Amino acid sequence: MRYKLGLAALAVLLTIAVSSSALSATLNVAVSADPDTFDPTRTVAAATVEIAFNIYEGLVKAAPDGSLVGALAAEWDVSSDQKTYTFTLREAFFHSGRKVTAEDVVNALNRARNPEIASRWSDFALVETIEGEGNTVVIRLSQPNAAFLYTLAEVNAAIYPAEAEGLSSQPVGTGPYKLAEWRPNNFIRLERFDQHWSGQVPYYDQVVFRIIPDQHSAVLNLLSGTVDLIPRMEASVYHQVASNPRIKVVSAPMNLVQILAVNNQRPPFNDVRVRRALAMAVNREDMIFGAAWGFAQALYSGLSPAMAQFFRDGLENVNPYDPVRARELLEEAGADGLRFTLTLPSDYPLHVQTGEIAAQQWEAIGIDVDIELVEWGTWLDRVYTQRDYDVSIVGLAGRLDPHAVLVRYTTGNSRNFFNFSNPEFDRLIQEGLSRQGSDRIAVYHRAQEILAQEAAGVFVMDPEQLAAMRQEIQGWQHYPVYVVDAASLYE
Question: What is the separation, in whole angstroms, between the first and last Cα of the chain?
Fold first, then answer.
């Protein structure tokens, strides 16, 4: 089956042509956290993906509606047995000025599946070989993988020069913008790339991502004109801009799973009764209105409703809000008098506020909660990488395919910082790769049921994305993944 990027799809991705009046235009964007690294193979942070979307491209990429369109691949063909993918490369250039070759693609994707380097190497576990010659790249899988093309749209599958060094601080991609300057914890400045393969160039000559963790400060900067756009404004500050005629706010589901993560292997959380007690003690409505000002939808398992038919509805009664039963479960597990540390990432006010509400609700059933605030880099190292924590909270950024979201809960997965393990769940996630249609939907529905029944974590909400910007800014695109598409914006 051959796939080709048609003119209609291409139009979605093409950037706004530059007029003479826009040659020196600068867009200032407020973001809450610094990238962890600009090496696409190593990154684990949504804060990196948000910016890197403008710098790097893979063979394919996401469109705003969640479909896939060609990026560095002009077209591709999938064999009848669904195990061989053949990509035809378009003529494209790196920010260094060198032409993209099949060798670059082979090198980048082989690095992306190297467990000694890559943060998401397990996503490429079914890849047997990657070969390239001329303008053709052939990838062979050991078995069908219905999610594979979506894997290639992730930033971890981005293409960069084979000879590139120092990508962590000096990224070299093919995107519509290139890195000009990075001052950690201050700003990232991008410059327009005039040789983009689309033949178009963005409206803004420069895009400056300013690191402003405090949302009140971000809003003050927006109101004063220092900042033009807040792509993920916290609902708690919505009232500060809602009635301002110079500011507009657009919203859409974020496709994010906010989860109170529980370390499933650390006693007493290795007892499902304790995990269920934590889940049954939380009132999501209080959290949604107390932390997200009502701009969210309650979640009870590991997928957002944005995943459409793959989302398993009706799980709210698996661990319903019932503080009395929650206290009973703790007593049955011998965990009455439980005390633990709740680690909160201080850079994300929504997560901090949700965590504080959760702590109050847990204390109401007799749990003693110590709150620990840590900056984002510490959270990534200690909670995500070392898995040294009791309970924490984070937002798991959405993906384009359910496998990419749910595979993180499988035993031994590099992203399974919950330390969750369930044989039936592992089997289902593997089966989902080779299923099609309604059979595949049923597999992921059952997988979500297991996450809820086993209380792998306390799934809280999918907040709405509130993007606040100057009235003059046009072209804002909501994506079902955690990105800012600066090239689509203009005035």
Answer: 40
pLDDT tens column, 241-292: 999 999 999 998 889 999 999 999 999 999 999 999 999 999 999 999 999 9
- Read off the tokens for 302: 């590991």
d(Cα 5, Cα 149) in Å, to the nearest integer?
14
Q: What is the 3-state secondary structure (H, E, C) of the chain?
A: CEEECCHHHHHHHCCCCCCHHHCCCEEEEEECCCCCCCCCCCCCCHHHHHHHCCCCCCCEEECCCCCEEECCEEEEEECCCCCEEEEEECCCECCCCCECCHHHHHHHHHHHCCCCCCCCHHHHCCEEEEEEECCEEEEEECCCCCCHHHHCCCHHHCCCCCCCCCCCCCCCCCCCEEEEEEECCCEEEEEECCCCCCCCCCCCCEEEEEECCCHHHHHHHHHHCCCCEECCCCHHHHHHCCCCCCEEEEEEECCEEEEEEECCCCCCCCCHHHHHHHHHCCCHHHHHHHHCCCCEEECCCCCCHHHHHHCCCCCCCCCCCCHHHHHHHHHHCCCCCCEEEEEEECCCHHHHHHHHHHHHHHHCCCCEEEEEEECHHHHHHHHHHCCCCCEEEEEEECCCCHHHHHHHHCCCCCCCCCCCCCHHHHHHHHHHCCCCHHHHHHHHHHHHHHHHHCCCEEEEEEEEEEEEEECCCECCCCCCCCCCCHHHCEC
**Domain boundary assignment for the chain:** 2-171+474-488, 256-465
Homologous superfamily of domain range 2-171+474-488: Dipeptide-binding Protein; Domain 1 (3.90.76.10)
d(CA 201, CA 470): 22
Lowest mean pLDDT among 112-116, 355-359, 418-422: 112-116
The pTM for the full model equals: 0.80
- The burial class, CB within 10 Å (0-12 / 13-18 / 19+), for 97 is exposed
Distance in angstroms (rounded) separating the CA atoms of residues 356 and 369? 10
**What fold characterizes domain 256-465?**
Dipeptide-binding Protein; domain 3 (3.10.105)
How confident is the model at residue 66, as a pLDDT?
A: 86
Residue carrying structure tokens 């500050």: 237
Instruction: Say if residues 487 and 177 touch (Cβ distance below 8 Å).
Output: yes
